[in-house]
Design goal:
220 residues, single chain, elongated, 9 strands, four-stranded antiparallel beta sheet, alpha+beta
Length: 220
């Protein structure tokens, strides 16, 4: 079983190195967008029905692969009498399960929303037709791009994170989001303010029912 543990630990190290290489590659390729040194592309007409679909690659298996190798390594160590192997099984199983369940298979950018499809988990939708919108770049190569839409009277809002493994070879998706959502660089992130006269707090309050509305809902 020591041989199994050795092979598994080697596979874990290789998966981690692969993730590091992916992170650095995407970090370099999106450098101009992280620094805001590129002009925002023209925002397409809202009636434009075009949909940009980008399928992810094998890099999205690296996280779950690392978790699986950690589990195998822990089992091998336990079988060899090394109690410390138990410290690899539970975390590895969590990473492997989560990595497979939430693995991104495609990223779709429409004229008014982003849709992220997962292998098992249901899709994630983030619409930017209303409300305050922001796309924050990662602060380190291992981080992801954070898209956030604050709630408004016409939208519930939403958020999602695009990790480097989701964007490898699809880095143009970031620029498409910037252009289609009408974002501008504010020195720290790409953002679009809420509609004139509607603040973020006002938008959130607008989504809450009034006392009369709440009483109406519970009346028989």
């Amino acid at each position: 079983m020591r041989i199994l543990a050795t092979i598994a630990i080697g596979g874990f190290a290789a998966a981690c190195l692969g993730l590091g290489a992916v992170d650095l590659s995407v970090w370099v390729r999106t450098g101009h967008l992280r620094r805001g040194t590129v002009d925002a592309p023209r925002r397409p007409d809202s009636s434009d029905p075009s949909l940009i679909v980008r399928r992810t690659g094998s890099a999205t298996y690296l996280a779950s692969g690392a978790g699986l190798f950690a589990v195998l390594g822990g089992v091998g160590l336990l079988a060899s009498g090394a109690v410390l192997g138990g410290g690899l099984v539970a975390p590895g199983l969590l990473v492997a399960t989560t990595g497979l369940w939430a693995r991104v298979v495609s990223v779709e950018v429409g004229p008014d929303r982003l849709e992220v499809r997962h292998a098992i988990r249901g899709p994630t939708f983030v619409a930017w037709t209303e409300g305050s919108v922001s796309l924050s770049p990662p602060r380190a190569p291992t981080g992801g791009w954070r898209l956030r839409v604050d709630p408004s009277p016409g939208a519930r809002g939403g958020r999602t994170i695009l990790m480097p493994s989701d964007l490898l070879g699809n880095e143009a998706v970031v620029q498409e989001i910037v252009g289609r959502a009408g974002l501008r660089w504010d020195g720290h992130r790409w953002a679009r303010p809420p509609r004139a006269g509607v603040s973020g707090n006002d938008a959130r309050r607008a989504d809450r029912p009034t006392l009369d509305q709440a009483l109406h809902r519970v009346r028989p």
